[in-house]
Structure formats: C-alpha cells, structure tokens
Amino acid sequence: MDWAERIGANLAEVERRIRAACDRVGRDPAEVMIVAVTKTHPPAAVEAAVACGLRVFGENRVQEARAKIPLCPGSARWHLIGHLQTNKVREAVGLFEMIQSVDSLKVALEIQRRAEQAGRRMPVLLEVNVAGESSKFGYAPDRLLEELGALNGLSRLEIQGLMTVPPWSPDPERVRPYFRRLRELKLACEERLGVPLPHLSMGMSGDFEVAVEEGATMVRLGTVLFGPRASAVRSGAGDGAEAGD
Ligand SMILES: *Cc1c(COP(=O)(O)O)cnc(C)c1O
User: What is the DSSP letter of 24?
Assistant: First the structure.
C-alpha cells in the first residue's frame, strides 16, 4: 500500500468536506484543525501524513505512543486522545503536546505533579461523557462544573477546552445534539472561569461535518484519512480506552 498516495487523496477530500461544512454555517475553515489519529498504524503512515502537510497526530494509548513516536518525524506533534491512567502520566507528559482526555481531578493532580517535575505547563482538554454512557470515560457535565474550580487552580494545567466521544450512530444527524451540548457546556465553563476556552474537540470520521457545523475546532480523524484499522489490534475495551497493562 502506498500511504502517501492514499493519504494525499483522502486529505484533499476531507479538506473539501470541512470547507463545505464551514460554508454552510459561515465559519472560517482555518478555525478547524485536523488531528490525524494514527492508532494501530505504523510510523510510515505518520511520515506520509507529514509529507502531505499534516502536523498534529492523535494516539489513544500511551503504550503504543511510546513505541511509535520516536520512530516518527520530529515535526509531528502529538495529542493523547484516550483515557489516561495515573501510572502513565509521567510518560504522557514527556510524549504529548496536549492531553485531550482529562476526566478526573485525580489524573489532573498527577499531571500537575509530573508537569511541575518536568518544568512545563501542560495544555489539556476536559473530556465529557455527554450522553452518560457507562461504557465510556469522561466527566458527567454536572461533575465537570463542580470540579472546574479545582481543575482551574492547578497552575501547570492550561485548560484549553472540552473534548467528547459521543455515542456512535450511522446517522450523523443523531449525534448533533451531543455536539451541541458540548458547545453549550463550554459556554457554561467559560462563564464560570471568566475566560474564553479556545477548543472544542469533537467529530470523528463518521460525523465530522456535523461537528464542524456545531463549532468543532479540532476534528479527530482516523479511518477517513488512513483507511480502516485492523480490528484485531484494537483492545476489547473499545477505541477510546487505554488498555490496562
Ligand atoms: C480512534 C479515535 C478517533 C478516530 O476514529 P475514526 O472513526 O477512525 O476517525 C477519534 N477519537 C478518539 C478518541 C479515538 O479513539
């Protein structure tokens, strides 16, 4: 398989669809960043994606990122998009430019501690489980608002916005209410904090156009760029999960 050829053609089509979605709602396509999700794919795929102009990559497991990132071009920047266990925080702080999946005060406190040791600030998104699915990680909206003050008090965390993985549906219109809810929750957080939060990370291969219409500033795209993943490589806990090891 020729990664560069595949990714180049797919990216052109994705960019066209993002522009069209922006046009429908009067947004500037420059506000929408593609996070290319490379889980299960080899460094050669990242290299080809970088050659196509992609710069920001998402991995959902620290263990996989640890092996992959050193083999990828240095210009690639990495976001963690899967659940983070406290015992992997130290490593995550060393590997990732942003952690999109902060889902508890416990993990935030550990990020604070490890970022301080590393002498850095860590940009983060707060992951929200907007539909209250028991199979998924993420804050319940009420709980997020309760803990927001404590999270915001952590000097080494730079809270840049919210992220969600909504329920899957073959009809992206059915997912729209969840994206809308995340946007409204971001407004509520901004009101509490008294500062704007720049990012809404929402939208995957099946529903990114609807997410863009609802205000996404980051869309996390795997399949639509790289093709289907070998399902055998996925953990049984689901795509968003960090396997316990
Ligand atoms: C795998 C994954 C994606 C990308 O999924 P696709 O449907 O392949 O685009 C996005 N976000 C998270 C959290 C993921 O785990």
Answer: H
Give the CATH number of domain 3-226. Answer: 3.20.20.10
Pocket-testing residue among 14, 18, 37, ligand 1, by greatest number of atoms within 8 A of Cβ: 37
Pocket test for ligand 1, best of 204, 218, 229 (most atoms within 8 A of CB): 204
The confidence band for 244, taking pLDDT boundaries of 50, 70 and 90, is very low
The torsion angles phi and psi of 113, rounded to 5 degrees, stand at: -65, -45
What digits encode the pLDDT tens for the residues 138-162?
999 999 999 999 999 999 999 999 9
Query: For strand 77-80 and strand 199-201, is the pairing parallel, antiparallel, or unpaired?
Result: unpaired
Q: Print burial letters for 55-65: b (CB count within 10 Å at least 16), e (below 16).
A: ebbbbbbbebb
Ligand 1 atom nearest residue 60's Cα: 15
CB 201 within 8 A of CB 217: yes
